[in-house]
Amino acid sequence: MPVTIESSILSPLLLSPTCLTKLDTTRVFLLGNKFSTTAITLSSKTSCISCTLVRSKLSPNVGGSVEKDKKGKKIEHHLRKRRDSAQSGQKALALVRTICELPNEKEAVYGALDKFTAWETEFPLIAVAKALKLLRKRGQWVRVIQLAKWMLSKGQGATMGTYDTLLLAFDMDQRVDEAESLWNMIIHAHMRSVSKKLFSRMISLYDHHDLPEKIVEVFADMEELRVKPDEDTVRKVTSALRKLGQEEKRKLVIKRHGLKWKYIHFNGERVRVKTSASEED
């Protein structure tokens, strides 16, 4: 004859080892802040245990209907609320308007930005990132530099994306020395995590300002950290090596990284053609 035991907590000593594995996940049921009552039926012929959850007086909502909205959709409650993207976009526009109306002075810009975030419960990182993106699209490089430096001075937004934007702004505003200082800081602080995009950005900056020696130095760090360059970067490095008269190194770079394409002028047009690894431009 089956034996029925009603208890809020199951004792593992009364059950066989084969049944414990089946029952382990249903040993205790916590509903809200109260335990529900569980009925267990033990059969003398088999070791099977069938557990049935009995609605307790302390938890009458067990097995009830799921909470739904007016349209019949299930209502899900989340502990974390999503941030309002529209609100951060409005803040970004207001931030851009504020910074563009200021004189080109560090004290005035930093003071206005401090006032802008004075009543924020937390740093508006998303809004500032969107503002940087807007200023970058507009080509307002001085404002990009001011806003990015202010954000970094607050200990916020120190990401590879921010560094890439700041290096680009330094490049477009002809601030090679500041770009080099920032690059040295990045290399020393984030040596093992510098991305290929950031290496390419720095090589492009030196190529833009015709500094072949610096290009070779950055490429040496790139190879030491085993970061594989893209074709555009390899092309700029080989061009820098040609300017420095280092033909052997140039051929070695082409052989190692394998340029697949080269550009030639044919009938007055610039045409891209395939090239072998050992072929010279």
Automatic annotation (TrEMBL):
<dbReference type="InterPro" id="IPR044646">
    <property type="entry name" value="EMB1417-like"/>
</dbReference>
<protein>
    <recommendedName>
        <fullName>Pentatricopeptide repeat-containing protein At4g18975, chloroplastic</fullName>
    </recommendedName>
</protein>
<dbReference type="InterPro" id="IPR011990">
    <property type="entry name" value="TPR-like_helical_dom_sf"/>
</dbReference>
